[in-house]
Amino acid sequence: MVQVRRRTLLASGGGAFVAKGYGQSLPKGRWTNILYLHSHDSGRALEPYDSAVSTPEIAYLAREGVTFRQAFSAAPVCSPSRAALLTGQSPHCSGMMGLAHRGFRLNDPRQLLFRDLQKFGYQAVLTGMQHVAADPDTLGYDRNLAYRDESGKWRAEASVVAPIAERFLDSRPRQPFFLDVGFFETHREYPDPTPADLERVQSVPRPLPDTPEIRHDFAAFGASARQLDAGVGRVLRALSRNGYDRNTLVIFVTDHGIAFPGMKCNLTDDGIGTALIMRGPGLAVGHQSDVMVSQIDVFPTVYDYLGIPRPSWLAGQSFLPVLQGSQVEIRDAVYAEMTYHASYEPMRAVRTQRWKYIRRFGSRRQPVLPNCDDSPSKSVWVGAGWPDHRLPEEALYDLTFDPAETGNLCHDPQYGDVLREMRKRLRRWMQETQDPLLKGPVTAPVGAVVNPPDGQSPSEPTVPA
Q1: Interval 273-323: pLDDT, tens
Q2: Is residue 207 reached through a cis peptide bond, with omega within 30 degrees of 0 on the bond before it?
Q3: Residue 8's closest CA among 246, 339, 270?
Q4: Rounded to whole angstroms, how far apart are CA atoms 282 and 301?
Q5: Nearest Cα to 93, choosing from 333, 339, 298?
């Protein structure tokens, strides 16, 4: 039986909190803060999803809340995935189809979750990385507490971000807050692994071979995950000691798969599978859900939880009943896309509980190596001939018998009906959302830079897109 814990929510003056200058208010008794914790390139390679990677603080949060085991990114790329969660739309609808620091940008920053919450009296506070704008000050936070070093670089390591978030919470803010705590971990480069990190690695993530180089690389990921976990723990303890755990919705999420070959920047589950853990007053406790959800569903869920009318641009579906312990499915498919990362590589995908269909657009059929971060694991694949691999235009996978997505069924006549149905689903979604890819190659915004797709590394010189 699912345990549901209910608490009395704190309210300003015991009633509604009125937003200055807007004339709007939160429903009486529903002043609930939001703590948005997010990490970089972590996928589901964290405890409690992966016991080979020790993150006890995150695992403790899972025991206190709801863990989604079938949560999926709208894109396996940093800025598009985060923009999708914060706008409740697919990346091609929000405009964020590439990396913010390479010149891609949102159509309308006012559609961000925290910007809309400001209408209801919320204070939006940034303490770490955000990755949906090259300059966070253009996004409309009320306070940007993130640290910039002497060279002008924004620093978002957990050792920097967690103390900033702690100081904000220790200041005992009296206004409802949306606290954005973004950690750089587990982005490369990783710290050196300890002997304990190495001992924990009994296997390596699919689809990689179990070699000494890759085992060491994954152990180094584990060392970075420990740093992330320590930062999460410090923030959660500050929340608790100041009494805000009684009236705060905590959202912990990862943006997409880990930065290993065949994961980040890919539309298989290893690329779009994410961690999602939520804890808050009135929500189920210690609940693990297998209900399939998308990142774009978070925004409408938060508004349903707060009792706030949803804005018109939202494309996601609320999973509030799941947070309260239900296992009822809210959607029959999730969709994901890849357009730009370091290089242009247009792909779209639709996933149901059983089937995955991926379509590559354009004529290129070789791996785009700049879209894979440099690493010892990448070197293993490149040395074995990865650049010469031939990629299919279409792929169909049966996730029941082939969860690793290695057996393409597109050319098997036995699955012809399934293939046609999945094609229709994908095209219908692209049409309904006015995906620009339907009209041909997607042009990048003026000023954006990319790597040529025939290159080897994202660190090579860029060119105008």
Answers
A1: 999 999 999 999 999 999 999 999 999 999 999 999 999 999 999 999 999
A2: yes
A3: 246
A4: 14
A5: 339
What is the sign, positive or negative, of the torsion defined by CA atoms of 78, 140, 250, 234?
A: positive
pLDDT computed for residue 206 by the predictor: 87
Average pLDDT score over residue span 154-163: 96
Residues 6+ apart with CB under 8 A from 413: none
Percentage of the chain beyond pLDDT 70 is 94
Mean pLDDT of 96-101: 98
> Could you tell me whether strands 177-182 and 33-39 are parallel, antiparallel, or unpaired per DSSP bridges?
parallel
Residue with tokens 């807007």: 22
Q: Stretch 6-12: mean pLDDT, rounded?
A: 34
pTM of the model: 0.94
**Strand 334-340 and strand 344-351: pairing?**
antiparallel
Of 79, 104, 99, 91, the residue nearest 447 (C-alpha): 104
Nearest alpha carbon to residue 85 among 101, 102, 68:
68
Residue 232 has pLDDT above 80, yes or no: yes
pLDDT cut 90: percent of the chain above it: 90
Q: What is the pLDDT of residue 6?
A: 34
**3-state secondary structure string across the chain:** CCEECCCCCCCHHHCCCECCCCCCECCCCCCCEEEEEEECCCCCCCCCCCCCCCCHHHHHHHHHCEEEEEEECCCCCHHHHHHHHHHCCCHHHHCCCCCHHHCCCCCCHHHCHHHHHHHHCCEEEECCCCCCCCCHHHCCCCEECCEECCCCCEECCHHHHHHHHHHHHHCCCCCCEEEEEECCCCCCCCCCCCHHHHHHCCCCCCCCCCCHHHHHHHHHHHHHHHHHHHHHHHHHHHHHHCCHHHCEEEEEEECCCCCCCCCCCCCCHHHHEEEEEEECCCCEECEEECCCEEHHHHHHHHHHHHCCCCCCCCCCCCCHHHHCCCCCCCCCCEEEEEEECCCEEEEEEEECCCEEEEEECCCCCCCCHHHCCCCHHHHHHHHCCHHHCCCCCEEEEECCCCCCCCCCCCCCHHHHHHHHHHHHHHHHHHHHCCCHHHHCCCCCCCCCEECCCCCCCCCCCCEEC
CA dist list (Å): 18 to 119, 190, 210, 377: 9, 45, 57, 53
Cβ pair 39, 183 in contact under 8 A: yes
What does the pLDDT look like over 19-32, one tens digit per residue?
433 345 554 445 79
CA 364 to chain centre: 27
Contact of 250 with 237, CB cutoff 8 Å: no
pLDDT at residue 69, rounded to an integer = 97
Residue 73, token pair as written in the block? 């990114």
